[in-house]
């Protein structure tokens, strides 16, 4: 698997480094994680990595397009490695759980703005807000 991740880095002309591989591996296995969680996951395999290194790696990977940063209103930024498909997110108002929602009409931007003001639109990001199944169960159990 490490070779897949190395190929991803090389494809965007990023040097293969241990922290970059560790962050990519963490995001491959865990979706929509915040920075603290990424640091904790990376430290399982690589205990000596600094917070700053993980911040820098997330920034570099996001800029290179290997990682997507999402930040629902009022929530902390989350990262995921599912990129390039213009998918959307559904967010739980109670616990902040996030799940993927596929693009509604196939490909970006998947929504037509009623007035694009002359902009060339290439992406649309929709956040659906609601209550996740766990929180809904909790609510009815009370
Ligand atoms: Zn919830
Ligand atoms: Zn997602």
From TrEMBL:
Protein name, entry field: Fur family transcriptional regulator
SUPFAM superfamilies: Winged helix' DNA-binding domain
Record carries keyword Transmembrane: no
Superkingdom of source: Bacteria
Subcellular location: Cytoplasm
Main location: cytoplasm
Alphabetized InterPro entries for the sequence: FUR (IPR002481), Fur_C (IPR043135), WH-like_DNA-bd_sf (IPR036388), WH_DNA-bd_sf (IPR036390)
Entry similarity comment: Belongs to the Fur family.
Keywords, alphabetical: Cytoplasm, DNA-binding, Iron, Metal-binding, Repressor, Transcription, Transcription regulation, Zinc
């Amino acid at each position: 698997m490490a070779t897949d991740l190395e190929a991803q880095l090389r494809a965007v002309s990023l040097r293969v480094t241990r922290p970059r591989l560790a962050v990519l591996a963490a995001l491959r296995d865990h979706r929509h994680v915040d920075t603290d969680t990424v640091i904790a996951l990376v430290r399982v395999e690589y205990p000596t990595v600094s917070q700053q290194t993980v911040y820098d790696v997330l920034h570099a990977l996001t800029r290179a397009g290997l990682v997507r940063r999402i930040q629902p209103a009022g929530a902390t930024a989350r990262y995921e490695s599912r990129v390039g498909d213009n998918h959307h997110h559904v967010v739980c108002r109670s616990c902040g759980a996030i799940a993927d929602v596929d693009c509604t009409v196939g490909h970006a931007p998947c929504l037509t703005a009623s007035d694009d003001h002359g902009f060339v639109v290439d992406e649309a990001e929709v956040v659906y807000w609601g209550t996740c199944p766990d929180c809904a169960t909790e609510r009815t159990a009370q």
